[in-house]
Amino acid sequence: MDPKRTLALAAALSLAALPLAAPAMASTSSSTDLTGSLTQLNDSGVTADVTGSISGTELTISITPSGLLAGAPHAQHIHIGGTNSCPSNDTEGSGADGALQVSDAAGSYGAIAVSLTTEGDSSPDSGLAVDRFPVGDASYSRTLEVSPEVAQQIADGDGVVVLHGVDLNGSGSYDGDVVSDLDPSLPEEATDPAACGTLDVASMAMPGGGADAGDGGTAGGVPTASLVGGAALAAAGGAGLLALRRRRGQEG
Ligand SMILES: [Cu+2]
After folding, report:
1. What residues make up the domain containing 226?
2. 244 alpha carbon to ligand 1 midpoint, in Å?
3. What is the pLDDT of residues 98-128, one digit of tens each?
4. Scanning 37, 58, 189, 227, which has its CA 20 to 30 A from the CA of 80?
């Protein structure tokens, strides 16, 4: 074969190989791990750990709550919208004694995108399907279908998990004079948010080196640049940690 044609063929082949590599990368990243750490709203004392994944339009999510009112159903949703964030626990709302109601927090975490029901429909229509939500601190785990749009938003880290139902007056059940802003047939306690946390895309493991650079025991085989970085980190000491925390705080 003419050497020029051979070269051209080689070039064409190497170009052809590129599109093969791209879909392979896309498919490995199409399942995204999710994690969340919910903290209290309305001084509820409620916390919850969330793990899950989104693969295509299939959402798997597990919630382990602590501190929810026993014997009462707790509506739980993935909200999307607003600033895709949680209001702070001390945010004043329109409920009794400044309690935060659902609509008060809409600017932070938007509307219901997924109702995390125990069975059946999981659309926003089931947002208050009280007979299909966990009771008390029951742990929750389910795999659900969501719309392509919602799946993308969750994979982008825009989801916020909210658990509802707070015993504001400590009576042991949902009651009180102020009605819910979602359903006036219910007291606000039945729907006020109890805990909130962003549904974060789990960070990938850092490639080796960085975390160990400050450890003198492993310094032997580390390239000079890493050693310098390690020394700088060691010199910065607590201040470096503080800066990292601050940066995280700003993201949250
Ligand atoms: Cu909600």
Report:
1. 210-251
2. 31
3. 999 999 999 999 999 999 999 999 999 999 9
4. 189
